[in-house]
Structure formats: structure tokens, C-alpha cells
Amino acid sequence: MPVRLRLREILEQRGISQRELARRMNVRPSTVSHLCSDKLNAAYFDTLEQICKTLDVPLHELLVLEDN
Questions:
Q1: Which of 5, 8, 17, 45 has the fewest CB atoms within 10 Å of its CB?
Q2: Domains, the chain, with CATH or none
Q3: Which long-range contacts (CB under 8 A, 24 or more apart) does 24-30 make?
Q4: Where is pLDDT greater, at 19 or 40?
Q5: Is pLDDT of 1 > 70?
Q6: For residues 37 and 22, is the Cβ–Cβ distance under 8 A?
Q7: How far apart (Å, rounded) are the C-alpha atoms in residues 64 and 19?
Q8: Nearest-10 Cα torsion for 54, 17, 68, 49
Q9: Are 34 and 25 in contact (CB under 8 A)?
Q10: How far is 2 from 31, CA to CA, in rounded Å?
Q11: What are the φ/ψ torsions at residue 41 (nearest 5 degrees)?
């Protein structure tokens, strides 16, 4: 089962730009842009944890298991 990151959707729901999230996380905007892309195939656990803490969202809401 493929895993998908719902980061782009969560940011849209909360009215937060990718650039703003990058600023809050102290990472490059290109890092957040990559995490929001459909071509993401890997992410560090530390980064996922930082996203969850910054957005106050549980991991199970950030990740989605998709059917093939």
C-alpha cells in the first residue's frame, strides 16, 4: 500500500502557505514544496515529527494509506 502525505491539504485547510510553514520549521521552502508534491517517495521521521509539532496535527492525520 502506498503512503501519501496530506501536507498540502492540511496547509490549505488551515490557510498556511508552504513558505510560512518553512519559516516556522526553520527549513528551506524547497523542502516543504517537495513534501507537498505528488512525487514524494521518502521523508525523514524527524521531519514528519517536526511537521506534526508545528501544525499540531497527529501523525495519523498527516499520513494516508492508499489502495493500489
A1: 45
A2: 3-65 (1.10.260.40)
A3: 24/54, 25/50, 25/51, 25/54
A4: 19
A5: no
A6: no
A7: 23
A8: -10
A9: no
A10: 21
A11: -125, -5
Q: Grid coordinates in use for 42?
A: 521518502
- Give the model confidence (pLDDT) of 10-32 as tens digits: 999 999 999 999 999 999 999 99
Confidence of residue 50 (pLDDT cuts 50, 70, 90): very high
Greatest Cα pair distance in the chain = 35
Q: How many CA atoms lie within 13 A of 58 on its CB side?
A: 2
Torsion of CA 32, 36, 13, 24, to 10 degrees: -10
Q: Which of 4, 2, 1 is nearest to 60 (CA)?
A: 4
Set of cell numbers at residue 60: 495519523
